[in-house]
Amino acid sequence: MAYLTRCQVFRGLPAISKIINASNSGALVGQRSLQNVVKSYSSLVSNVRKSGVTALRPFNQNSQKIGQALVPFANQLRASSTGDHVKLWQMERVVAAAFIVLLPGVLLVQNVILDGAFAALLVMHAHWGLEAIILDYARPAVVGPVLPKILFAALYAMSVVTLAGLLALAYNGPGVGGAVKKFWAIGNK
């Protein structure tokens, strides 16, 4: 509210400068005219405070365009504030820390359970990273409302297909660790 009051007061400053110029006509501001300016300014401030100003009118056409351009960002901020992002961030850190243990475990111990856990966590990690990229660079305000929906649908499809492929590799093939070892062995033969 104080910010809006200051903005309304500053909108009245041109009127104050007219009062000063009209009373002076180029000379130094005298004691009498300065008192009039202060009275006018204080009455302007008190009128703005009494009126309970809640919104500003645009100063000019450019400020109106800027205000309209900022509306989608404000809506996006309001929409993103509804979720619990702290828990998601903590889960991302737990998944990233789990790779420290799982990656050597998958390579050293060929186990279906370790391969399945590694596959699921790998897909989750990649999905969250790509989702953040889409949210940052394919905002509806920038690229339109359709492209982000297409990208999110493609991301979910890619995540499902990747998880299915890794789980098939873990259960029906050599496993994720075995596949990595075979891939590394290609250059040695």
UniProtKB/TrEMBL annotation:
<keyword id="KW-0249">Electron transport</keyword>
<keyword id="KW-0809">Transit peptide</keyword>
<dbReference type="GO" id="GO:0006121">
    <property type="term" value="P:mitochondrial electron transport, succinate to ubiquinone"/>
</dbReference>
<keyword id="KW-0408">Iron</keyword>
<keyword id="KW-0349">Heme</keyword>
<dbReference type="Pfam" id="PF05328">
    <property type="entry name" value="CybS"/>
</dbReference>
<feature type="transmembrane region" description="Helical">
    <location>
        <begin position="94"/>
        <end position="113"/>
    </location>
</feature>
<keyword id="KW-0999">Mitochondrion inner membrane</keyword>
<keyword id="KW-0472">Membrane</keyword>
<dbReference type="GO" id="GO:0048039">
    <property type="term" value="F:ubiquinone binding"/>
</dbReference>
<feature type="binding site" description="axial binding residue">
    <location>
        <position position="125"/>
    </location>
    <ligand>
        <name>heme b</name>
    </ligand>
</feature>
<keyword id="KW-0812">Transmembrane</keyword>
<protein>
    <recommendedName>
        <fullName>Succinate dehydrogenase [ubiquinone] cytochrome b small subunit</fullName>
    </recommendedName>
</protein>
<dbReference type="GO" id="GO:0006099">
    <property type="term" value="P:tricarboxylic acid cycle"/>
</dbReference>
<dbReference type="GO" id="GO:0005743">
    <property type="term" value="C:mitochondrial inner membrane"/>
</dbReference>
<comment type="function">
    <text>Membrane-anchoring subunit of succinate dehydrogenase (SDH) that is involved in complex II of the mitochondrial electron transport chain and is responsible for transferring electrons from succinate to ubiquinone (coenzyme Q).</text>
</comment>
<feature type="transmembrane region" description="Helical">
    <location>
        <begin position="150"/>
        <end position="171"/>
    </location>
</feature>
<comment type="similarity">
    <text>Belongs to the CybS family.</text>
</comment>
<keyword id="KW-0496">Mitochondrion</keyword>
<keyword id="KW-0813">Transport</keyword>
<keyword id="KW-0816">Tricarboxylic acid cycle</keyword>
<keyword id="KW-1133">Transmembrane helix</keyword>
<feature type="binding site">
    <location>
        <position position="137"/>
    </location>
    <ligand>
        <name>a ubiquinone</name>
    </ligand>
</feature>
<dbReference type="InterPro" id="IPR034804">
    <property type="entry name" value="SQR/QFR_C/D"/>
</dbReference>
<dbReference type="GO" id="GO:0046872">
    <property type="term" value="F:metal ion binding"/>
</dbReference>
<keyword id="KW-0479">Metal-binding</keyword>
<dbReference type="GO" id="GO:0020037">
    <property type="term" value="F:heme binding"/>
</dbReference>
<dbReference type="InterPro" id="IPR007992">
    <property type="entry name" value="CybS"/>
</dbReference>
